[in-house]
Amino acid sequence: MNDSILGIVITFLVLGIVLSIVAAEQYGTDFCDIANCEGITLPQINAGTNTNNDGFYDYCYRMGFDC
User: Fold this and answer.
1) Which alpha helices (DSSP H) does the chain contain, by range?
2) Does residue 66 contact residue 60 with C-beta atoms inside 8 Å?
3) What pLDDT, in 10s, does the model give residues 10-51?
4) pLDDT of 49
5) Alpha-carbon distances, residue 19 vs 14, 22, 24, 31, 50 (angstroms)
6) Full-prediction pTM beyond 0.85?
7) Distances from the Cα of 2 to the Cαs of 7, 8, 12, 32, 43, in angstroms?
8) Quick one: pLDDT at residue 12?
9) Rounded to an integer, what distance in angstroms lies between the CA atom of residue 31 and that of residue 23?
10) Domain-by-domain residue ranges, the chain?
């Protein structure tokens, strides 16, 4: 009984690996190829960017939560 369950688990494991490889080959490994990242722009962080604020408490303050 345990041998048959082990065989089924190994079969699904091999099938999952093969499908992952096929999907990576078909769609490529770059996320933006799949998700269409053309409209996404990231802000530039330079020496003048203020990063001293704590993001957690800034979020709580803006949302009106008492953190």
Assistant:
1) 2-27, 31-35, 55-63
2) yes
3) 999 999 988 887 787 776 665 555 555 666 676 777 776 666
4) 62
5) 9, 5, 8, 17, 45
6) no
7) 9, 10, 16, 43, 55
8) 95
9) 12
10) 1-36
